[in-house]
Write a structure and sequence with these properties.
Rossmann fold; Dihydrodipicolinate Reductase, domain 2; nine-stranded mixed sheet; 11 helices; binds nicotinamide-adenine-dinucleotide
């Protein structure tokens, strides 16, 4: 029997309470020994539900637990870097929810602490952990797409602003709107599928048009975060942009919490010299399509691929962390990829303000 990884979770809100604690407590190699939330009753309830011995209001007390192996950060974005750096400096491994951090300075602090510590730093990249993503990744790696030189990705919603008036829509706490909230998910997936080229320049625009709208949300994805009547709304609700990479490839992006479209859609499309791949949550029942050619004729394939039997999405990513700590896997995520991601996002915000291209 392998040693159990002792985990402490900081931030017992929507994603911490549900997705993370459910995944950790059903992994046989994990023991959750501590929970922490500035709202103590949230941590108390989780402790009672899962039989977790330690309850804290201050993350520093959780990090100070000697037997703790891993700190899992599920707080609002602003606190990711501060808590990750403190945990790494204390010799703990870190799992952190996305986005990595709210700006370049904060993400670089995380990377430096990681390099000094020799510990694991993993940031949630749940979309890499699906059967479709694994299939496309291998398809590209096997050379079946040829050179992937262009991509589009996005996550657009008709009405889906999370926690309106609360931390999600307060730039100081969130770092921004859908670009930083949803952009990390689909830009990361797309860049990873493209083989992790490095970004070299960015141009983008942002719009904030739905702060006054009271129309009901039409997606469960807007249920994250606590809404606050008469709270702050100083973030964008649509961001568009264009990213160039060091290998000459380019990527077009769009991310929205609200715009007048038919329905929510999360997607990527990859264009390679031998084939293209298209996956949209809101198109063709979420089935993956591969567009190629054989013997002078174009082909459209909906590939049949086996599920791996492993858990997918968030639970898959958390299981992967455990496998890494048990020496059974190499981390799929490198902190440099998080630095590049936050650089792209910050540069799109800068470009939206200045109207100019930003060279990275
Ligand atoms: N990967 C995904 O699919 C996904 C989905 C939703 C949210 N998230 C991310 O998870 C994080 C949390 O989002 P959420 O929707 O659960 O938010 P939430 O507001 O529901 O929960 C955050 C919790 O953190 C607590 N908290 C705030 N500051 C704290 C601090 N300094 N120390 C300890 N606890 C603190 C709050 O009291 C709250 O209970 C965000 O970074 C968000 O981007 C990721």
């Amino acid at each position: 029997m392998d040693k159990k990884i002792k985990v402490g979770v900081v931030g017992i809100g929507g994603i911490g309470r549900g997705t993370h604690l459910d995944a950790w407590t059903t992994n046989p190699n994990v023991e959750v020994i501590a929970v922490c939330d500035i709202l103590r009753d949230r941590a108390e309830r989780a402790s009672q539900k899962h039989g977790i011995p330690h309850v804290f209001e201050d993350y520093k007390d959780l990090i100070a637990l000697e037997e703790l192996d891993l700190v899992d950060i599920c707080t609002p974005n602003k606190f990711h870097s501060e808590i990750a750096v403190a945990a790494l400096n204390a010799g703990k491994n870190v799992m952190c929810e996305k986005p990595d951090a709210i700006n370049n300075e904060e993400v670089l602090k995380m990377q430096q602490a990681y390099e000094k510590s020799g510990k694991l730093l993993m940031v949630m990249r749940n979309n890499r952990f699906t059967a479709e993503s694994a299939f496309v990744k291998k398809y590209v790696q096997d050379g079946k797409m040829g050179e992937v030189y262009y991509a589009k990705c996005g996550w657009v919603r008709r009405r889906g602003i999370p926690g309106k008036g609360g931390w999600f829509t307060t730039k100081e706490l969130s770092g921004g709107g859908p670009l930083i909230d949803l952009g990390v998910h689909m830009m990361d997936l797309t860049i990873w599928l493209m083989g992790n080229p490095r970004p070299v320049s960015v141009v983008g625009s942002t719009y904030s048009k739905f702060g006054e709208s009271s129309t009901k949300a039409d997606t469960v994805n807007a249920t994250f975060g606590d809404a606050k009547a008469d709270g702050i709304y100083d973030v964008e609700d649509l961001a568009t942009g264009y990213v160039k990479f060091d290998n000459g490839a380019t990527m077009v992006i769009e991310f929205s919490w609200a715009e007048n479209i038919e329905t929510e859609d999360r997607y990527y499309e990859l264009m390679g010299t031998k084939a293209g791949a298209k996956w949209h949550s809101g198109y063709n029942n979420g089935k993956l399509s591969i567009f190629g050619e054989e013997q002078g004729i174009t082909t459209n394939i909906e590939p049949n691929f086996k599920k791996s039997g492993k858990r997918e999405q968030h639970a898959g990513n958390l299981d992967h962390v455990v496998d890494c700590l048990l020496g059974k896997a190499e981390p799929i995520f490198k902190p440099q990829q998080g630095v590049d991601m936050i650089k792209i996002i910050s540069a799109i915000y800068e470009s939206a303000e200045t109207g100019k291209e930003v060279i990275l």
